[in-house]
Design goal:
Glutaredoxin; 5 helices; 183 residues; elongated; alpha/beta
């Protein structure tokens, strides 16, 4: 582990509160659009505010949208999520379409997952007290001391004869009986 991961918070990638199992809850709680009314670098975000902000607010009623005009500052988008994460993004010199895509991206994610060091690849709210499953979990313990190959542990010895195999055997017997009667 490098020193870089010491300052990154650790956690699990999981759906918060089983989000999407019963119904979907948008994780974006608040979005703040900070921009300058006259600076040229804020042109894209001003175009977004004029053309698409009302539609965005109608399509996502659970998200609070704040507009914060600031003089002579670079435009910034700050997204705050239900799990407490804050994502800060500079949109200086970005076009209207780029800002629309970035805001849609912020709306559909659950926080700043990229800045989280994963502790484990799997996570469950109800861990098993019996331990993890392995391919040998329900195997016969005799198999541990057996010298293989052993016909006792062959896969074909335990399977019952299938209906197709029974029909094939009956056909062969009938064929043999027909050959014997013809002689």
């Amino acid at each position: 582990m490098s020193n870089k991961s010491l300052f990154i918070k650790s956690g699990f990638v999981r759906a918060p509160l089983q989000n999407g199992v019963g119904r979907y809850v948008c994780q974006l709680q608040r979005i703040v659009l900070k921009f300058c009314k006259s600076h040229g670098g804020s042109r894209g975000i001003r175009d977004f505010i004029e053309q698409d902000l009302v539609d965005f607010a109608k399509n996502s009623p659970g998200t609070v949208v704040y507009l914060k005009p600031r003089r002579h500052r670079s435009p910034v988008i700050v997204a705050e999520y239900l799990n407490g994460d804050r994502v800060w993004m500079s949109v200086h010199q970005k076009t209207h379409s780029e800002i629309t895509k970035w805001i849609e991206n912020l709306r559909t994610q659950q926080g700043d997952v990229a800045a989280t060091r994963l502790r484990k690849y799997q996570y469950t709210d109800h861990p098993s007290i019996q331990g993890p499953w392995t391919p040998f979990t329900f195997k016969d313990p005799e198999l541990n001391t057996a010298v293989l190959p052993d016909p006792k542990f062959g896969a074909n010895n335990r399977l019952p004869v299938s209906a197709t195999e029974k029909l094939r055997l009956l056909f062969e017997k009938q064929k043999l009986s027909d050959v014997q009667t013809a002689e």
